[in-house]
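Table S2 (continued). Query chain:
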Amino acid sequence: MSNATPIPGTIRPDEAAHFGRLADDWWDPAGSSAMLHRLNPVRLAFIRKAIDLHFDSQPRTMRPLAGRRALDVGCGAGLLAEPLARMGADVTGVDAAEDNVRVAAAHAAAGGLSIAYRCGDVAAMGLTGFDLVTSMEVIEHVADKAAFVGALAAALDDRGLMILSTPNRTAASRLLMVEAAERIGMVPRGTHHWDDFITPIELHDLLAGAGLAMGNPQGIAWSPVTGLHLSDNLALNYIVAVTRS
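Corresponding output:
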């Protein structure tokens, strides 16, 4: 009999199945993932600035991640993994849905990008030594948030940078991101479960428990004039840089 402590699983099969069903039109900017296509440039602006600050790279450098390893967890069909590869990183993408990994690998190959995609639970993969670990809009979908954060922490190099984004659990996010967005079709029904959203304070405590230090979160807000944009308003969604404490 083994005395090893079992690793808590982080995948919810129903969530993986939901996102897997969206795989084939993930790259269609007018398809079911249209909101992610609008969100991605906003996230990338934050990520690029965080990379430059953390790794002391020049803002005009096209490949600030050259010679570095990047891990994108919950990578979907590769909307973030591909830009990271174009920044010069050796990228590994992990997702719980086989269909997402299939579409991601095919899209990367068609674009001449070499990205290692893996399907499974990051908590069971034993990944280590990554300079950059990203996970965008994922922690709200996992079965065990502490185990998930622990797996991300284990994958991060001691001098590495982690970037996370997630919806905040507020009255505004319930109204706009769940009830309104899903009702009018901006987001596929069943995508969001408000009770699983995580506040910045809760995320701070989870990260601290894994030996990580959370920077000041920046909001991702929406207005009729500017659309989605980085903001001091954390009511809907926020993104944050994380390092070892």
